[in-house]
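Run folding on both entries below.
>entry_1
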Amino acid sequence: MLKEIQHGHVKTETHNGVTTIEFYHPQSNSLPGKLLEELAHAIHRAGNEDDTKVILLRSAGEKAFCAGASFDELIAISNKEEGLQFFSGFAHVINAMRKCPQFIIARIHGKCVGGGVGLAAAADYAIAVEGAEIKLSELAIGIGPFVVGPAVERKIGASAFGHLAIDATMWRSADWAKRKGLYAELHSSVTEMDESIARLSHALAHSNPQAMSELKKVLWKGTENWDHLLIERATITGKLVLSEFTRNAIRKFKAK
């Protein structure tokens, strides 16, 4: 299944129990609202398919894994309702990943910024390649990593999350992300990364679906309030994005 969305796409394929969900956008795999909506729907649909035993989340191309929010859409937000709607898109994707009964493996082939770090954190098992640096850049443009924050903090702890959130202009290495627990594995080449993904995907596709579903519930224990929490966080960001400070900061970033 391939759905074209504003010059990007979300593509879903299932082979031998492994459902691959791929997203793409020409602006460094950034995430406009329509793409976020379709990504959440794709994850939800895959989670309800009997043929799906494990999900592989990946993005297209060879450069960035995900550049986070679409700056074009951020600058176009004109009121709190539009702000809430846009940032709720990230909430819906993270909650879809959280509630999906299958394990989600994330293939991190390049840099992650903002919401991209959130996707890596919301995956149950992220496999990355050297060079897949991370940055939570939100504070640098006058907002903050409020929606993705719970997912990132859950994965790497409050201290490391604080380091990322506060120093919003500093890239952290893939090795740093591995040591903090964001990445489960780190490989020296794309070939090695893909071989490891294939090995784990095959093993999980032949594991007991009920056992995996129950284990996922255990691993995500304590997040039952996220349907409400992440929308609360989206409300905060939706207000901040309207400030003149933020609008000027986004204009400067777009002009680079």
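>entry_2
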Amino acid sequence: MTIDASALQAVLLTIVTASTPLLLAALGELVTERAGVLNLGVEGMMVMGAVAGFAVALTTGNPYLGVVAAALAGAALAAPFGFLTLNLVANQVATGLALTLLGLGLSGLIGEAFVGQPGVRLAKLHIPGLSDLPFVGPLLFGQDLLVYLSIALAVAVWRFLFASRAGLVLRAVGDNHASAHALGYSVVRVRWAAVLFGGALAGLGGGYLSLAYTPQWIENMTAGRGWIALALVVFSSWRPGRLVIGAYLFGAVTILGFFVQGLGVGVPAQLLSALPYLVTVVALVAISRRRGRGDAAPACLGKSFVPDR
């Protein structure tokens, strides 16, 4: 069986679009968890970003306003999580699960009027001379804005966490919030910033689904991608560089399942649909067995902090 260059190019382009929402959402959750907060509401924030981005782009005709709306919707849904867990010291796991349920239900209600309507697609960028190069042109120089933004954000997050004073403070809050508080840093304020940033990127990831991946609104269109994003953070050992690799790996697994199915290979469609989630479970089990000292989770992850009174 041979695959021509155009078919290979199409597969690679689809892998990029499938990986981008995972990368965006996982980057936001990585920063949140580095601050010591475990937010399991990524799925809910993604789906709210998807419906808000689609609705604003459709009503205004401007997909870039939809991108902004998606980020704001994700951050807005993260705000009650931050208030409950950081100010009222509610259980982070239970609150995150409730956030996912809230997002799924609220997005279905808001998006009911938009079901079946054609969306406004986020345009691909065109760089004269570069985008027209054979094979590599569309792959490297013909993507949409959010693809490049996701890579830029990965670099920015890495530099922030490991090459800036503010990133050192955030990691200190996640590793030992009592010591960070004793040194005069506001643990709650740092965690609030991380939660809102994580919500905004989760919303961007959802917005990418309804503005670029499949420019339409379908109820529950995230289809578990928020849970994969959560697993990717663990898969990457809380490191942005590994997260990029993991996101594209899981995106490739998702698309290759459809590609194999399209070739007529005798594999049950249900198994191919479950493949990304099976790979997620296997990867997490393998990582848990080989966890090294430098790959440990932030020591205060999921632990509530109450400042001295």
